[in-house]
Amino acid sequence: MSNQLDRSKSELLFNDAKMMFPGGVNSPVRAFKSVSGPPVFIKKAEGCYMTDVDDNRYLDFCGSWGPLILGHNNAAVRDSIIETVAHGTSFGTPTPHGNEIGHTILDNHSRLEKIRFVSSGTEAVMSALRLARGYTGKNKIVKFEGCYHGHVDSMLVKAGSGLITFGESSSAGVPESFAKETIVAKLNDCEGLRKIVQQEGHDIAAIIIEPIPANNGLILQDLEFLKLIIDLCRENQIVSIFDEVISGFRVHFEGASGLYNLSPDLMTFGKIIGGGMPVGMYGGKAEIMSMISPDGPVYQAGTLSANPVTLAAGNATLKQLLHPDFYKKIELKTETFVSQINDHILEREYDAEMIHIGGIFWLKFTSKTIKSADQIDPLSMEYFKKLHHHLLQDGVYFGPSGYEVGFISSAHTENDLNLAVEKIRIALDKTFEY
User: Fold this and answer.
1) Which is catalytic among the residues 148, 260, 350, 403?
2) Omega prior to 278 cis, within 30 of 0
């Protein structure tokens, strides 16, 4: 594939970065390993557009991998950061910013009784799992193949063999003894989950799931399956955990829990609640959260947890999400965008489909419904590689992996989305060589 777009400055920076950082990046997917050319080095962004160091301008659908539901450089968020930084960046003490965002969240999220801030989604998951073990006195965790919960050791596992598929390490550096504490189940498989709980429920501390699995494609689950998880947990003294790092405050102010009217015991969050700054949070029932130090025996701490600059940015973001019809407007924009692309796919008879929920979308290169991770054909990612190349040349930025979802923000206007639709149609035709 030729690179008509000038990315020479990005390439120079990438070559320099490779001398300092493993793979030249500080998070693996940024390395463009699954697509073509060097990573794009961004120097500025505004609204739904980014500009790279070579002065190429991109219509962005990555949104910093999800946090930027208001678009880049939102004025209220930016002003809150500047105002807060003027008074200092970190104190190692409580600040009023914690109380302010705490009230914004708890006054408007009926499924959260108490919360604690940490510095990343991974840290939130790690803390919630420890809390579940401390609360129940049990050891094992059930996760689902295709759900990503950060780089926690016990979550970096893949399915093993047999009916009860105890985890096998999917990363070097994770001892098999850690992985064996995790049971990997299949998504959307009610009978399989019942069997796991029947056989191992006596030692299962928690069942954790992305209620809207969006880290390995967008694998929408049947509501019956999500309800079953909560019911089985309630019946067997197991803590139910919804990982809402992506779906939280994205599809509804109360996330997937609110959208589906479900009440898990604990939830984990990140991304949007930091307004573009590093953040994580976990929370849920007060009875369980009371087990956390200093109230209880489950230890968890963090020097920069509840950083005032982060919380100010997050609160400025969340307050805008509370405006009437905020989520309806994004849903409508996304639905229109997706339907226009799908109309083109159907007209050309391509074996592909774009699906969405709220402001999240995913282009899959099959017309078949996908409910579990093993239904995604790895060979289909070659189509995405071609598509990504053509889109980048035409100034449209998707995350550099076909397994990743895209995001539409309130900053995407009707004109922006119509322009993107035209460019995506052209890129699809080139991809399928129409």
Assistant:
1) 148
2) no
How far is 232 from 16, CA to CA, in rounded Å? 52
What would the two tokens of residue 380 be?
């289909």
Model-level pTM?
Answer: 0.95
Q: Is 271 a catalytic residue?
A: yes
Catalytic residue among 52, 58, 186, 243: 243
Amino acid at 115: I
Task: Respond yes or no: is residue 397 known to be catalytic.
Answer: no
Per the domain annotation, does 54 fall within a domain? yes
Shared domain for 232 and 121, answered yes or no, is: yes
Rg of the chain, C-alpha, whole Å: 22
Domain presence at residue 69: yes
- Mind listing the pLDDT tens digit for each residue in 183-232? 999 999 999 999 999 999 999 999 999 999 999 999 999 999 999 999 99
Catalytic annotation present for 9: no
Burial class of residue 180 in the structure, from the number of CB atoms within 10 Å of its CB (0-12 exposed, 13-18 middle, 19+ buried): middle
For the beta sheet containing 353-357, the strands, ordered from the edge strand earlier in sequence to the opposite edge, are 353-357, 360-364, 406-407
218 and 304 inside one domain: yes
Look at residues 429, 394, 387 and name the one whose alpha carbon lies nearest to residue 1.
Answer: 387
- Structural domain for 266, as ranges: 76-321
N-terminal to C-terminal alpha carbon distance within the chain = 17
**Annotated catalytic residue within 138, 140, 186, 271:** 271
